[in-house]
TrEMBL record:
Keyword Hydrolase (UniProt): no
Protein name: Nephrocystin 3-like N-terminal domain-containing protein
Domain of life (superkingdom): Eukaryota
InterPro entries named among the record's database cross-references: NPHP3-like_N, P-loop_NTPase
Length: 205
């Protein structure tokens, strides 16, 4: 049966690619850690406890499409965004989970946010950037102190616009990393965000 899923590439400030060397994901927050000030959606990551039974692609299915995504994420394409789109029920989320699982197990997944219509904290974009930042502090240790510094310097950052949050909590810390590395960020079901303007803003970040 022909798939009704299609994809496109675009440019953005985030480049997916290869992480050079192991990533240490040990992560403990002290009571006074500035990162505790960042609210985040616990159900956002692909592997949150509420999603533990959500399926991934069966073996030897979606092979060509998955390989296309892997080629992109492995740095074989200079464009920064892989945009997967299609009708509801065509397996986009299953593909996203499959890709997320692959790079998580390879310690190459920076963060993931799976939107869900009517899903409370994952049904809107209010905690989108702060959730990404909290995950980045865990998965990319070199960014952790820079994110902490941003929270201290901008004590009201959780109440700022999404654009400002992205600038200070994500782009700023990553621009300060000494070692050039690339990471994969996966956003699923963006169309299920409850505010169309927020959707447009996230696409533009």
């Amino acid at each position: 049966m022909a798939s009704s899923i299609s994809f496109a590439y675009a440019n953005s400030g985030f480049q997916a690619g290869i992480i050079h060397g192991p990533v240490n994901t040990t992560f403990h927050l002290l009571p006074d850690d500035p990162l505790n000030r960042l609210p985040y959606a616990r159900d956002a990551p692909f592997n949150s406890i509420t999603k533990q039974y959500d399926p991934t692609c069966l073996h030897d299915t979606r092979v060509d499409l998955l390989q296309e995504i892997y080629n992109w994420a492995d740095g074989r394409d200079e464009r920064c965004i892989f945009w997967l789109n299609g009708l509801a029920g065509t397996g986009k989320s299953t593909i996203a989970r499959t890709v997320a699982r692959r790079y998580y197990e390879q310690q190459r997944l920076a963060a993931s946010f799976f939107f869900s219509k009517g899903g409370g904290e994952v049904g809107h974009a209010g905690l989108f950037v702060t959730s990404i930042a909290v995950q980045l502090a865990q998965t990319v240790p070199a960014s952790r102190q820079h994110i902490r510094d941003a929270v201290v310097e901008h004590s009201d950052i959780a109440n700022r616009s999404l654009r400002d949050q992205w600038h200070y909590l994500v782009l700023g810390p990553f621009s300060k990393l000494r070692e050039p590395s690339s990471y994969t960020l996966i956003i699923d079901a963006l169309e299920e965000c409850d505010n169309q303007i927020d959707i447009q803003l996230i696409v533009q970040l």
